[in-house]
Amino acid sequence: MSADDPALQSIAEIGARIDQLLDLVRRLTEENRSLRQSQEQLSAERAGLIARNEQARSRVEAMIGRLKSLEQNQA
User: Fold this and answer.
1) 40: which of 13, 17, 54, 69 is 20 to 30 A away, CA to CA?
2) Alpha-carbon gap, residue 21 to 29, rounded angstroms
3) pLDDT of 55-65, one tens digit each?
4) What pLDDT is stored for residue 3 in this prediction?
5) What is the distance, to the nearest Å, from the Cα of residue 5 to the centroid of all Cα atoms in its chain?
C-alpha cells in the first residue's frame, strides 16, 4: 500500500474527522460545565435576592403597621 492508496487516504480522513469530533466533544463538555456553574451561581444569587426582597417587604409592612397605629392614636 502506498501513500496514494485511496484506502489509506480514507482512513486518514476518518482519523482526522474523529479528532475533530473529539475536540468538539471536549469543547462542548467544557461549555456545559461552565454553563452549569453559571446556572448554579445565578440560582444562588436569585435566592439571595428573593430573601432580601422578602426582608424589605416585611420591613415595609411593619412600617405601614406602625404608621396606621400612629394614625389611629392621633385620631
Assistant:
1) 54
2) 12
3) 999 999 999 99
4) 59
5) 49
* Distance, CA of 68 to CA of 61 (rounded, Å): 10
Q: What CA–CA distance (Å, rounded) separates 19 from 54? A: 52
3-state secondary structure of 24: helix
Cα–Cα distance for residue pair 4/12, rounded to 1 Å:
11
For the record, the C-alpha cell of 68 comes out as: 396606621
For residues 43 and 37, the answer to whether their CB atoms sit within 8 Å is no
Cα 57 to chain centroid, rounded: 28
pLDDT digits (tens, 9 = 90+) for 22-65: 999 999 999 999 999 999 999 999 999 999 999 999 999 999 99
